[in-house]
Write a structure and sequence with these properties.
mainly beta; PH-domain like; 6-stranded antiparallel β-sheet; 1 helix; 10% helix
């Protein structure tokens, strides 16, 4: 199988704003990564940054929390569908899994689907990547057994924990 260059991506995670008696807190997230395809396995690497801005009676502050690099390997046979959507302006690589937990450690996953935002300039590379995923899916062996759960720490976003 021919190899393809890693594909840079971003994941959109909704911001979280709260207003209560102690003040106002706004939490924003930035997730960036690289998607690799090695033989019949998709390898996701990503880093997440959480920025919390707080205004309250105790003062004003900003806290930036950077998670360690996360990594997830997903067999190509676990991918039900891979497609590029969003037109020229906002290309997105949409991956739909055959297993609900296939992308469970990735931020921004909804119902077994993962949407990766791709820079406009990389649209052609993204098309090539989708074709390579489809080829890997066809050549991959039948669905392997899911890995046994381990207690390895996976970087996750805090979703608004108090700084």
């Amino acid at each position: 199988m021919s190899s393809v260059e890693p594909l840079p991506f971003r994941i959109t995670v909704p911001d979280k704003d709260t207003i209560d008696l102690t003040g106002i807190r706004s939490v924003s997230y930035r997730v960036e990564g690289l998607l690799h395809l090695a033989e019949d396995t998709l390898i996701f690497e990503w880093s997440a940054t959480e920025t919390t801005e707080r205004v309250g009676f105790t003062g004003i502050g900003t806290v930036v929390d950077e998670s360690p690099v996360g990594k997830l390997e997903v067999p190509a046979s676990w991918i039900a569908d891979a497609r590029l959507r969003g037109g020229w302006w906002r290309p997105q690589l949409v991956l739909r899994a055959r297993r609900l937990g296939a992308f469970e450690s990735m931020p921004g996953v909804t119902g077994g689907a993962l949407i990766l935002r791709i820079d406009r300039q990389l649209r052609r590379e993204a098309k090539t990547f989708v074709a390579a995923i489809e080829l890997a899916r066809k050549q991959a062996p039948l669905l392997p057994e899911p890995p046994e759960h381990d207690d390895t720490e996976v970087p996750r976003l805090h979703h608004g924990d108090e700084p």
